[in-house]
Specification:
single chain, about 210 residues, mainly beta, outer membrane lipoprotein receptor (LolB), chain A, twelve-stranded mixed sheet, 3 helices, 12 strands, about 10% helix, globular
Amino acid sequence: MKKVSVLFAAFLFLFSINATAIDAQDLSSYLKQLNNLTARFVQHTHDGQGSLLQTQTGKIYLQHPNKFRWESEPPFEQLLLTNGSTLWQYDQDLEQVTVQTLDQRISATPALLLSGNFQDIEKEYDIYAEELQEEHHFVLIPKRADSLFDRLRMEFDRDKMLRRMIIKDEVGQKTVISLSNFDIQGVLKSELFNFVAPEGVDVITSDF
């Protein structure tokens, strides 16, 4: 069941909240902590009835602006990465890589919420905040009708580290991504965000 749900891989659960709209700068102060981030992830995807469809594990790398690398481990091995202009999706078992021009709209590529231009967030989303005892949560509702999801919840701990992303799409599918083993001190090499197809791999060029 491999698919570009990794785009988030990225990033799906609909919560009912009582909150007030806030300025995107509040969320930006948290997202800025994610520059040069390396972390482990566990992703659970559920259907509209709550049944578990798939579990993925792997590593994620983020660097501002607009660079990310998402490595899913076996049995659903897949590599998704961008250098800020080109997006690659590599399926090793299929021996093929799909190459696209990265859509710079963060509503089209939710991963850019974590590694993109903070000033664009308020243009693309209505943002709500919840203050909890040990955590700070943000709920983002896309303003565009063609967004890949209906609602995204980002849950930060007291140290402003992102612990969970919970997303739901228009058909009720939910994905919960939990992050751990953070490293924000290291320097990420540019090679991490570029891809050279191995010999014998089919290269498919596609557009959004």
